[in-house]
Amino acid sequence: MTGSENPTAHGGADADTSDVGAAVAAAHRAHWAPVLAATVRVTRDLDIAEECVQDAYTQALRTWPSAGIPEHPGAWLRTVAGNRARDLLRRESVWRRAMPLLVEDDTVPGPQDAAEPPAVADDTLRLIFTCCHPALSREARVALTLRLVCGLSTAEVARAFLVQESTMAARITRAKKKIATARIPYRVPTAADLPERVSTVCDVVHLVFTTGSNAPVGAALIREDLVASAVGLARTLHRLLPVAEPAGLLALLLLIDARRATRTADDGQPILLADQDRSRWDRRLIAEGTDLLTEALRGGPPTRYAVQAAIAAVHAEAPDFEATDWSEIVALYDVLLRLWPSPVVELNRAVAVGMRDGPRAGLIALDDLAAEPALATYRYLSAARADFLRKLKQWPEAITAYEEALVLTDNEPERAFLAARLAEVRRAARS
Amino acid sequence: MAKYMLLIYGNEQRWETMSAAESAEIDAGHVAFVNRAGVRILASGQLEPSSTATTLRGTGTGTGDEPAVTDGPFLETKEVLGGFYLLEAADLDEVVALSRELAEVRHDHSGVEITPLVHHG
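^ Those are the sequences you sent over. The predicted structure of the assembly is below.
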């Protein structure tokens, strides 16, 4: 280590150990990506940079209790990680590395000790665009983004996507090797390529969010670490990029996330939109999401995220489920189907038709989708049919549909919910 | 700088039966590619039909064995290798951008594959 490890600390004030733990955790959330991104420019190697940043956080835990929590933790971490990187690079062994150096453009390095050097924003974007490069597979993009940009451990990323840690480690290693060997550049795309590349990034962020907010398998419906990572990424994109798509994406995530506290009961069971306690929806997030939606719709045709956000905003405005403007929802799903044709959107539209015109009409709309192969084993199609059949008091058919939905569902809280509805329908059928 | 092999694959039957207009479009793409890539092209070529290929295949029983010589390409597929460029470029994005000049990347039966060459430092 070099001597200048503590450039911006408060003058030696002793800090409480629990304060330090909290400060390091906060610094991890706030600064992991920019610190790693800046260090990659020093090392031009993702693995070595990761090691140096990890070291910097370890050193923070060790020295902040006595030296005090620095005024600008991000700048402190960046300096320590950068010094560590330069130390390592001086050692000959590192030069005999297996992987080629990352390709980057020449840039003037920003000042090392300012709170927010201008290069920081650029560095973070470089890291994001490299992790989400279209030459990587979609699953590799997601894994790299969670590991390198969000700072999740390989074990956490593996758990989110239901694979063995060793499998996830191999996937991340393979992706890093492709970045280095095929020379995927560490660079913000040119203006001409930006819209397409931003779409790829938004897709990754959206996938992280949906995986987190509707965990396909497991004991919890909502994986808060993934939701927080996705919202954090969307905020970063929106702050750093002058294009409309991230505004729509962030609006969507906030409007959905505003319902988080009301989506599960105390025992972990999911609560449907119809039954959620709307007085507990996060009005601050809804207001922010609505403002962002206005921004996203200003100028230019809407992106699919903006339309999805508009649907979420209509729900947010409704005092209760029945009072929802279902005609508006159906109309928005029609727009969404043009922008993003997908069987799942068709399913949501059919459900909205059922709400607008009654369960009979909803059932007919769902029946139109029954032949869709992509939906043949989709748990929400059976569940939606079951719900309309229950409302129509067609008990035997409702029982069959709930049984079908149960077979297709692996998420434990959702299974418990469906089992409870099934029992309820069976009771009704007997009486 | 790094070296990349750009391989052009496509459905051979479609290539053999294409119209004069399609053929002209492909030619124009290669002219544009060559104009833009310039000195980055280290070598290039168009392959004769796969029916003219000869394959020597290891028989897999031991080092002393003679290979089997057969008529035809190594892989018997509808999609065949039609041509190649050997390029030198700064990074993958540069090669991808150049490749967009080729009409083959817009037709539904063809495409290009870009692979970096092992760097012998």
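Chain A has 19 helices and two strands. Residues 17-43 of chain A form the longest helix (27 residues).

Shout if you want it in another format.
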